[in-house]
Amino acid sequence: MLTSESLKRIDREIAKYPADQKQSAVMAALAIAQEEQGWLPSEAIECVANYLGMAPIAAYEVASFYNMYDLRPVGKYKVSVCTNLPCMLSGGVDAGEYLKQKLGIGYNETTPDGLITLKESECMGACGDAPVVIINNRRMCSWMHPEQIDKLLAELK
Amino acid sequence: MAILGAINPMLSVGLDGDNAWRLADYVKRGGYTALRRILEEKVPQGEVINEVKKSVLRGRGGAGFPTGLKWSFMPRSFPGDKYVVCNSDEGEPGTFKDRDILRYNPHSVIEGMAIAAYAMGAGRGYNYIHGEVWEIYQRFEEALDEARAAGFIGNDLLGSGFSFELFAHHGYGAYICGEETALLESIEGKKGQPRFKPPFPASFGLYGKPTTINNTETFASIPYIMNLGGESYLEAGKANNGGTKLFSVSGHVNRPGNYEVPLGTPFATLLEMAGGMRAGRKLKACIPGGSSAPVVPAATMMDCTMDYDSISKAGSMLGSGAVIVMDETTCMVKALERLSFFYYEESCGQCTPCREGTSWLYKVVHRIEGGRGRSDDLELLASVTTNIMGRTICALGDAASMPVQSFIKHFRDEFAYHIEHRKCLVPVDVQRAGSGFFTATA
Which chain B residues in 174-213 lie under 8 Å from chain A, judged by CB atoms? Predict the structure, then answer.
């Protein structure tokens, strides 16, 4: 069920590991599948498992262990904000509250139009840039004070 | 600018331009000369390892284990595959130095890994990069392409007969994968759950083969050690604490960011470099080595120098060099509550004391913070920590316990006040002002 473009990308990942260690590509393959589908339905996990020649339950274990995989549908944009201590000291928690108020939703909720899902996140390794948010696991935005958050939300509309 | 400030730097020299991360720029500032010399002169493997030993480079990931000694654990005559693995899974709250090394100086890591591979006879390597820094991962992949095209990695490096293939592996959000054996499990395509040690990775590592895992900054330091000589590198720091180190300064300072200074630099100097305390407020406490390190009260901290031995004497750990600065607007109960939630969230669930214990640590600190604390809660917390520590496969259980013990030890009055008065000693509006969310400009 994955597109040939996604499978090609997965092949490039498989090539990084010894020939008898295809399973090593499962994290990248799941990330690619999620990028294509927006989240990870069981069918996508099973498809990845079959492609890599591993048991579907083993791929599911990986998908459910690492917290950047979404096992339930999310909005078009997943906005994750770090509230861990170093970020909290520089406004991470406030940024989360500001986002909640602007979007009218809480953490792990999606706006009624399906546009934005808000997530509270653990350390992103960018504490010097606090407050920090990440869009769809890919794009990191630094120093997100009210003005910058307003700008970001306007852009995501 | 990549690094906000430095004293006698090595790693962060010449990183100002937009293309500093490119191969051409790295070569222009002396990059790959160490690897080239070693390959051309066929320097014996033992000599390379000895140079690293002489430098007293200590692991920059947190444990501070001597790198040269670690390398010497790898079996020399092992007939099959051997691996070197770089741990760039930087997720310890407060730490953000590896991100900048990979962003601005990725070839130093590649060269360091190639030299390490040569010294230990490893033919293949992986760099495991933190999930949340996708852009950094992409850049590292590009840097690998450049290095491969120039013959610094791949088959028959620079015609020497030595081959080393290096790849990047992208994590996907699990703090525990910073633990070296969890990281290996993760590369193997499994849940990142730590393995029992022994056997250590040097005998049973990736795919069951001899493997050495070092931190990003550790590998990045290798070319500089080879060029300078181990002794000069050691002298750049202080006895038993060789070289310079990147410190990630976060929290209540005017200029959070990375600073490269010689080990042994006074904390007061580092604080000054980071622009001093935000709004001129008073320092209350500091976590000097990432969230897992015990917190140190202001007065003790101001007397410390930034090196493994001084911080250890102050009852904490230099760890990864993540300096979390807290001023008088900080509620220590709330600070601990957030850290305890982190460990509860990130415990891999494998060992019962950690899985259940981190949950209880969070629940109890949470109820104290919420004004529902009980009079014996501090004793309860102490008892939970002692029942976690030393009873788990990896160090996450200890890492979750040490903040709890140290916060209560040094700020017991504040916890007691919370329990008795069901509110914060530091008024909530004062705490909010401390974050600077509405007042700071980007």
Answer: 174-175, 186-192, 207
Query: What is the number of other CB atoms lying within 10 angstroms of the CB of residue A42?
Result: 12
Is B250's CB within 8 Å of A130's CB?
yes
For B160-282, strand residue ranges (E) read 165-170, 211-215, 244-251, 257-262, 265-266
Average pLDDT value for residue range B333-345: 97
What average pLDDT does the segment A142-153 reach?
97
Single out the residue of B430, B378, B374 nearest to residue B405, CA to CA.
B378
Please say whether the beta carbons of B437 and A81 come within 8 A: no
* Tokens representing residue B217 in the block: 């900054």
Task: Indicate whether this model's pTM tops 0.95.
Answer: yes
Task: Please choose, from the candidates B5, B10, B8, B2, the residue with its C-alpha nearest in 3D space to the C-alpha of residue B228.
Answer: B10
- Flag whether residue A91 sits within 8 Å of chain B, measured between CB atoms: yes
Chain B touched by A27 (CB under 8 Å): yes
pLDDT in the model for residue B442: 44
Query: Per-residue pLDDT for A78 more than 90?
Result: yes
B130 in reach of chain A (CB within 8 A): yes
Instruction: Please check whether residue B294 is in contact with residue B405, taking contact to mean a CB–CB distance below 8 angstroms.
Output: yes
In this complex, is the C-beta atom of A83 within 8 Å of any C-beta atom belonging to chain B? yes
* Angle at alpha carbon of residue A137, lines to A134 and A141, rounded to 5°: 20
Put simply, whether A53 touches B (Cβ < 8 Å) is no
Q: What are the tokens at B166? A: 């290096």
Section B341-366 average pLDDT: 98
Give A 93-152 residues with CB within 8 A of chain B. 93-95, 98, 121-131, 134, 137-140, 142-148
- Tens digits of per-residue pLDDT, B66-93? 999 999 999 988 888 999 999 999 999 9
When CB atoms are compared, the residue of B131, B189, B436 closest to A91 is B436
Which B residues, 365 through 384, put their C-beta within 8 Å of a C-beta on chain A?
none
* pLDDT tens by residue, B222-248: 999 999 999 999 999 888 888 999 999
